[in-house]
Design a protein that fits this description.
The complex is a heterodimer. Chain A is an alpha+beta fold. In chain A, 32% of the residues lie in helices and 32% in strands. Chain A contains five helices and seven strands. A seven-stranded antiparallel sheet of chain A has the order 1-7-6-5-4-3-2. Chain B is built from four helices and three strands. Classes of the chains: A alpha+beta, B alpha+beta.
Chain lengths: 165, 87
């Protein structure tokens, strides 16, 4: 990611698993919550607003430890599009990190997952776009509120920058 | 964002200079500046009889870095997904 690109994040990963398995991990709310570190109060159905809270992930102890301070933090996702086993997308508030702030009237970003068969593997592409619609002031506020979290992941970012520059 | 661009190009500017050419009122611009000041993005200083506004570059950089952080969080999340579906 070039530093000049401020609207969009795009990631791809190759998953050695059947398409149906990947699809379930993305669109079954319980499974999504298990690897991402959230707990949802409903199923992911088209057009649904699903409420969730942050719970430490069960698949990585180190990350779970980092998520602990945010445990119980509430948020919402709005299911935007479902094309079975190919495309899944939702909207959320990317900088909603301050408790007691109502984010419902602020712009959202769109998170989209695309599945593509590459031989026996699934190429998964995730994009998060629409950051430019979020007021710069909000980004900076969220950053300041999250500065503790920032310190924790600083090593990761250093690695990320080393890889991308 | 055009306010930010003008502050970038012109350095510290008075409200009169800042509003030149914008089709919105000085009050509206001041309101924007106050919000940005609240977020630590700009600073207001007294220069003689005038108040001048300037960028706080460290905070602007912080806003950009936030995206890098979100990017790193996605790297992490996808790593966990890989572990989850391949186990």
């Amino acid at each position: 990611m070039s530093i000049a690109t401020t609207d969009r994040i795009e990631k791809t990963i190759l998953l050695h698993a059947p398409r149906a398995r990947v699809w379930r991990a993305l669109t079954n709310a319980d499974e999504f919550g298990e690897w991402f570190g959230m707990k949802f109060d409903g199923a992911f159905t088209l057009g649904a607003t699903v409420r969730g809270i942050i719970v430490p992930t069960k698949v990585d102890d180190e990350v779970a430890e980092k998520q602990k301070p945010h445990e119980g933090f509430p948020f919402e996702i709005l299911i935007e599009q479902i094309v079975p086993e190919r495309h899944f997308s939702f909207r959320w508030h990317p900088f909603a990190v301050e408790s007691g702030v109502d984010y419902s009237h602020e712009p959202t970003t769109l998170v989209a997952f695309e599945l593509e068969q590459i031989g026996p593997d699934i190429k998964l592409t995730v994009t998060e776009s629409g950051f430019d619609r979020i007021p710069l002031a909000r980004r900076a506020q969220a950053f300041a509120a999250n500065e503790g979290g920032w310190t924790m992941v600083v090593t990761l970012i250093e690695k990320y920058l080393a890889k991308n520059h | 964002m055009r306010l930010v661009a003008r502050l970038c190009d012109g350095g510290p500017l008075s409200i009169a200079k800042l509003t030149e050419g914008f089709p919105i009122s000085r009050q509206a611009i001041t309101k924007h500046l106050r919000v940005m000041e609240g977020a630590g993005l700009v600073q207001c200083a007294q220069s003689g009889r005038e108040r001048v506004w300037q960028l706080e570059p460290r905070r602007l950089d912080a806003a950009r870095r936030h995206l890098v952080e979100i990017s790193a969080q996605w790297d992490h999340a996808l790593g966990r997904l890989k572990h989850f579906v391949e186990r």
